[in-house]
Amino acid sequence: MAIADVSTTPISDLMSLSGRVAVVTGGGGGIGAAICNRLAEAGAAVAVLDLSLDAAKETAAGIADRHGVPTTALAVDVTDEAAVQAAVRQVAGELGDVHVWVNNAGAYPSAQAIDLSAEGWDSLMGLNLRASFVGSREAARHMIDAGHGGAIVNIASTAANKSGGGNAVHYVASKHGVAGMTKQLAYEWGAHGIRVLGVAPTLTLKTPGIEEKQEWLESVGYGSVLDEYASSLPLGRAALPDDVARLVLFAASDMAMIMSGSMLYADAGDMTK
Ligand SMILES: NC(=O)c1ccc[n+]([C@@H]2O[C@H](COP(=O)([O-])OP(=O)(O)OC[C@H]3O[C@@H](n4cnc5c(N)ncnc54)[C@H](O)[C@@H]3O)[C@@H](O)[C@H]2O)c1
Fold first, then answer.
1. Which residues contact 127 (CB under 8 A, 6 or more apart)?
2. 0.90 cut: is pTM over it?
């Protein structure tokens, strides 16, 4: 299936996700909630998946209120393959065929490589890399069965393409893995009209995960590290969740119709450092 030629489609239609269904993992807070918001603003019906049902419900209710789109909220642990498979069926039953799948759920624990256990390595790989693969595969199986293409967006990190500075080795390895997986899946599924892209944020403030990290940094006497990193970035500040969400919307929309396999950097110039 060749992708459509959209050369004469108006920009407003290219940006629109009206009539499409999007799934966002880890949509209960932080970057994931911002992604849900922009996809809904573009007209998509949005399924919010999160470990926390309460958090998923809060995001879903907020975007339904603001943008008037159908939503659903599901408690799903993305590391549970059967739960992800069941979620695809449930979302399709409630909202219709899925066109956009965003693998956002992830974590960034601190650790020194010299002290990191093999179990700690496996656990983070299971969340950041294996679950992104399982989510991508289930989304692609569904899109292929449904007979239409779609877009799969994997949230990576600037640490997908360089060292992570203060980030831990399993985090950096998992995000490099996400970048490699994105290229290979784009190659394998292009014939089905499925585009697979990555969005790679630099430090992104105002997320629950970063706020927790900030508290921990303060407790160990490194409270100024994130501020210093943010002001060292060429654009003079760190990213905010909506900075990332706008790139995800672009990647998921027909504006990016010819892009697949590549990474969009929400990096404030981080990649030039
Ligand atoms: N915030 C940053 O500085 C930053 C920078 C680069 C990349 N990222 C990436 O962006 C993504 C989101 O980061 P964030 O800062 O918003 O994180 P966050 O910790 O603030 O939020 C993550 C969300 O995912 C959910 N979640 C965690 N484990 C899950 C699981 N097993 N199943 C389902 N949901 C789960 C959490 O409940 C939470 O709602 C992650 O993949 C992260 O690696 C973040």
1. 78, 79, 105, 106, 107, 174
2. yes
272 domain residue, yes or no: no
| 10 Cα to the center of ligand 1, angstroms | 34
Atom 30 in ligand 1: residue holding the nearest Cα: 77
198 Cβ below 6 A of ligand 1: no
Q: How far apart are CA 65 and CA 37, in angstroms?
A: 11
Instruction: Indicate whether 93 belongs to any domain.
Output: yes
In this predicted model, what pLDDT tens digit does every residue of 235-255 receive, in sequence order? 999 999 999 999 999 999 999
The dihedrals phi and psi of 167, each to the nearest 5 degrees, come to -75, 155
- Gap from CA of 260 to ligand 1 centroid (Å): 23
CA of 210 to the centre of ligand 1 (A): 9
Quick one: pLDDT at residue 14? Answer: 98
Predicted pLDDT at 43:
98
Pocket of ligand 1 contains residue 264 by CB under 6 Å: no
Question: What is the domain extent for residue 66?
Answer: 11-204+243-267
